[in-house]
Specification:
135 residues; alpha+beta; Nuclear Transport Factor 2, Chain: A; 6-stranded mixed beta sheet; 6 strands; 40% strand
Length: 135
């Protein structure tokens, strides 16, 4: 499996909310950077982070439009979509979809770095309760 295929498999684990599968595909020293610059290190912390994220966004999905790789880096372009649902109910007016890009770095057939690039200001406001209806 090449680095692009490995990254696609990682995205498949994200899209199926397979936290155990994600963790198995990460290096022990995995670094995750979200779209507002928050950094999480290591499998144990990422297991908690992904579990919590999927609780808040139970239908989170990445749609890949383009994917490119060079060396150990893979760039992904597409959209991220989800419904903010801290109560577990999927209210249609809490759904969002935004253009996004991701960077993966692969070492020893494991994802060692995953970074998200997206303009999700409205989404962050919604999460914080400042703007309950994203535009």
């Amino acid at each position: 499996m090449n680095n692009i295929d490995l990254t696609k498999a990682f995205i498949d684990r994200i899209n199926t909310h397979d936290v155990n599968g994600l963790i198995q595909m990460m290096s022990e020293d995995h670094t995750f950077i979200d779209s507002i610059g928050s950094v999480v290190h290591g499998r144990k912390e990422l297991e908690r982070a992904w579990t919590g994220y999927f609780r808040l966004f139970p239908d989170y999905k990445i749609t890949v439009k383009d994917i490119f790789g060079e060396g150990n880096k893979v760039a992904v372009f597409g959209t991220a979509a989800a419904t903010y649902s801290p109560s577990g109910h999927l209210y249609p007016d809490h759904h969002w979809e935004i253009p996004a890009a991701w960077e993966a770095q692969v070492h020893n057939r494991l994802i060692s770095h995953w970074a998200i690039f997206a303009d999700n200001y409205k989404t962050v406001q919604m999460i914080q309760g400042l703007d309950p209806k994203p535009s």
